[in-house]
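Morning!

This is the sequence you dropped in the shared folder:
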Amino acid sequence: ANALQVTQSPVAGATAAIGASTITITVTDAAGNSSTCSATLTVVDTTAPSITTCAADQTASAGANCQALVPDFTAGVSSSDNCGVTSVTQVPAAGSSVGLGATSVVITVADAAGNTTTCTAQFTVNDTTAPAIATCAANQTLEAAANCASVIPDLTGGVVATDNCSSSLTITQSPLAGAVASFGANAVTITVTDAAGNSSTCSATITVVDTTAPSIDTCASSQTLVADANCSALVPDLTSSVLTSDACVVTVTQSPAAGASLTTGATVVTITATDASGNSSTCSATLTVVDTTA
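The structure's back. C-alpha cells below.
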C-alpha cells in the first residue's frame, strides 16, 4: 500500500485567535496527488476578569436635602483580563442621590465575552450640618422677688430652628428653667441639637430688676425730750426701731441725723428706707423738746 501524508494548516501549535478558525487538512499520496477537507476550531473566552484592587470606601456630608451624590468609584478599580476588559460600571451610578447611612456600591468589570467579576465598596453619607437657629428666645426683664432674685423661665418654646435632616430637634437651656436668676443680668445659653448630635447655640438675657419701693411696716415712735442746760436736746437714733420689708437690701436713714441738736418745740424727723436700686419710702416721727427746769 502506498503511504499517505496528512498535513494541516495552520499547523498544530500555532496560535488560534478568539473566535472561529478554519483548519485545512491535506492528504497527499506518493505521486503528489492530494485532497483536502476542513475543520473549524472555535476559541471561546470563559474566564472572568480579575479585580486586583477594588475602589476604596468613601464618605460624604449630606446636603440641604439630607442626601449626597454618589461619586465615581470606577476610576479606583484595578483589573485585568486574558482577552481585555471592555467596561467597568457601578450601581448605583455616579451622580445618583442617596440618603443618610451606608450604601453598597457594586462595581462590575466585564470583558467582550460577557464574563464579569464584581466587588463592593461602601459609600457612607453623614449628617455634619448643625441646625440653623432662625429665631432665638427673646430677652426678658423680671421683677425681683424674695432674696432679691427671680426664677429663670422656660425659654426653649421661643426658639425657631430648622435642620437639613432632622424634623425633630432637641432644644435645651442652661441654666435650666426654674433655676435662680440673681439680681442683674443673667445669660441663658440655648442649644439646638439634631439627631446626629450636631448643635448650634444662641443666648438670651434674663435681667432681674427691683422697681418696688421698700415697705415700712413700723415707723419710729414720736418722742418727748427734756431740754438740757443749754435749752436743747440731741436727736436720738430712730432708725433702729424702724421695721421694713423689701425684696432686696434696705438702708434706713433719718433727717435730722442722730446727734443733731434741737431747740425746744416740735421737730419732724423724716425716716427714709432705701433699697439697692434706689427705690425709697418715708415715714416721720416727731421729737418734742420741752423745758422742765424751773
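Headline: The chain has a mean pLDDT of 96.

More detail when I'm at my desk.
O.
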